[in-house]
Design a protein that fits this description.
The protein is about 75% helix and about 0% strand. With about 130 residues, the protein is mainly alpha-helical.
């Protein structure tokens, strides 16, 4: 059960890679080098997507975006005072509350980044194979 998120993300990444490969013309006629490059492109696109999302999720757990969410909450309270309840004091209290909720959750942000690194490794290996052809 511990590694289920890795397998699910790898399966989603594989499906996304196949979709990119199909859009690039994998199933059309062409040389072996062209097919290897198309497969490499599919894995590269997926790797960059997963690495970007994984890095963004990791940065979000550090509290980097807390100031933006606090500003949106304050702005929404100023525009819609009856609908948005602003029970917090200042930014310091808001940040402490967010840190407490982050400590209680285990979202596994590194799984997305590691799956993306695996896809990037496959694409680097395929690029080396393409240079050999």
């Amino acid at each position: 059960m511990k590694y289920i998120r890795y397998w699910v993300q790898a399966l989603i990444g594989l499906l996304l890679s196949v979709a990119v490969m199909a859009s690039r013309g994998l199933f059309a006629e062409g040389s072996a080098a062209d097919r290897v490059m198309i497969v490499c492109d599919g894995f590269t696109v997926t790797a960059l997507l997963f690495l970007s999302v994984g890095a963004l999720a990791w940065i979000a757990t550090t509290g980097f975006f807390d100031i933006f969410s606090y500003a949106v909450r304050k702005g929404a309270h100023a525009l819609l005072p009856g609908l948005v309840h602003d029970s917090l004091g200042g930014y310091y209290e808001y940040r402490l509350e967010k840190e407490d909720t982050r400590k209680k959750r285990d979202r596994g942000e590194k799984s997305t980044f590691l799956v993306g690194a695996g896809f990037l490794l496959v694409s680097i290996l395929l690029t080396a194979v393409w240079y050999q052809l």
